[in-house]
Recover the amino acids of this structure.
């Protein structure tokens, strides 16, 4: 049974429970739930979580531990399941390390949610309204997990997968009723990087994608909607495209690894932290994007024809490793990570105040 913050919620939670239906018949229940959430009024912490105050995190490695910190900071109770026997120590120390940044970014909303470690995935999802799945990127592992949790899920609970590589259709193959599964793909680390890519498809029940977006937004994320299934979703493809040309330029001897990285970090990368490429080029000429393209359309066509298609083979890897070693001049990975994290925090704060 779903428990909301007031009596009306409990009544509608019971109704929802009785409306639990197979794929394709969820619509009515979801519409009522969305309606309930809009009219019944939210109170206290519920305001900050779009109605999802009970969460579960399945798989608490790199991504799951970070989601756990953010959910807890947002005041959500988090039930964690990971078969690794050291999970509790690892997650608690991750959360402790993440907390100062979360506080600095204003992402700690009031009283932290309760953290609970479970001995099975089914135990973790029982009572959860929002489940974030972060198990290894292998179809068989995800499907086995879905088969275990599906009977234990609350009516109306949403399950979001962090999957970077598997598509939503591949993951839906593991469900009897996939109508409550969405893609909720973060950028590492999810407690800091705002982007979450959200996707549903024809098998997703009405309102589920919107409700997931509402939750992510309420806890401080910026969501985009992925409308069509492609490998790597959106942001990873963009990264791959830039990196491919960066590598091509290195392999062709146009510039060193250090200088190509500087070209990104001190040139377009600074602008991209402010706005996306099409918006920026729209500011590139008086008269907007059309005026800009009147001058530059053919220039871009020429550049695109000339872009490289390197392969990540042993020779490329060797060139990149050697180039990076020269660029780092003996600084340790820890020093580089600390510099990255400090800069990221400043950039995120600047973006928060600049909109
Ligand atoms: N690492 C990244 O940069 C990144 C970014 C975005 C999304 N993702 C996605 O997040 C998911 C997790 O990736 P990760 O990098 O955190 O992997 P990871 O290997 O760090 O963590 C996976 C965790 O899942 C646990 N696990 C294994 N089987 C399990 C099961 N049956 N039930 C519960 N837990 C189980 C493992 O013990 C491990 O702790 C993947 O789908 C990946 O594509 C990763």
């Amino acid at each position: 049974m779903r428990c909301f913050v007031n009596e009306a919620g409990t009544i509608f939670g019971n109704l929802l429970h009785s409306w639990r239906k197979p794929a394709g018949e969820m619509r009515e229940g979801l519409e009522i739930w969305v309606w309930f959430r809009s009219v019944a009024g939210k109170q206290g912490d519920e305001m900050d979580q779009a109605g999802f105050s009970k969460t579960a995190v399945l798989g608490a490695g790199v991504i799951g531990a970070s989601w756990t910190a953010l959910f807890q900071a947002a005041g959500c109770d988090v039930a964690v399941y990971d078969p690794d026997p050291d999970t509790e120590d690892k997650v608690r120390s991750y959360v402790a390390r993440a907390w100062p940044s979360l506080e600095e970014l204003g992402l700690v909303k009031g009283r932290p949610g309760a953290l609970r470690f479970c001995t099975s995935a089914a135990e973790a999802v029982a009572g959860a309204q929002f489940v974030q799945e972060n198990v290894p990127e292998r179809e068989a592992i995800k499907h086995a997990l879905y088969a275990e949790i599906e009977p234990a899920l609350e009516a109306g609970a949403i399950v979001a997968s962090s999957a970077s590589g598997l598509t939503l259709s591949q993951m839906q193959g593991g469900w009897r009723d996939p109508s409550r599964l969405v893609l909720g793909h973060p950028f590492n680390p999810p407690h800091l990087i705002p982007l979450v890519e959200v996707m549903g498809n024809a098998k997703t029940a009405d309102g589920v994608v919107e409700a997931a977006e509402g939750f992510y937004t309420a806890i401080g994320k910026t969501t985009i909607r992925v409308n069509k299934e492609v490998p790597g979703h959106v942001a990873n493809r963009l990264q791959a495209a830039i990196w491919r040309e960066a590598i091509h330029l290195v392999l062709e001897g146009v510039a060193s690894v250090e200088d190509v990285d500087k070209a990104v970090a001190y040139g377009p990368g600074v602008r991209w932290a402010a706005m996306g490429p099409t918006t920026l080029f729209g500011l590139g000429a008086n008269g907007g994007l059309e005026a800009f393209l009147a001058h530059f359309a053919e220039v871009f066509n020429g550049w695109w024809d000339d872009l490289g298609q390197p392969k990540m083979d042993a020779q490329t890897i060797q060139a990149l490793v050697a180039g990076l070693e020269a660029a780092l001049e003996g600084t340790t990975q820890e020093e580089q990570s600390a510099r990255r994290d400090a800069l990221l925090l400043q950039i995120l704060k600047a973006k928060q105040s600049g909109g």
Notes: The pocket of nicotinamide-adenine-dinucleotide is lined by residues 58-64, 81-84, 121, 134-137, 141, 145, 162-165, 185-186, 188 (CB under 6 Å). Residues 333-354 form the longest helix (22 residues). The chain has 16 helices and eight strands. Strands lie at 54-58, 77-81, 115-117, 130-133, 158-161, 181-186, 195-199, 222-225.
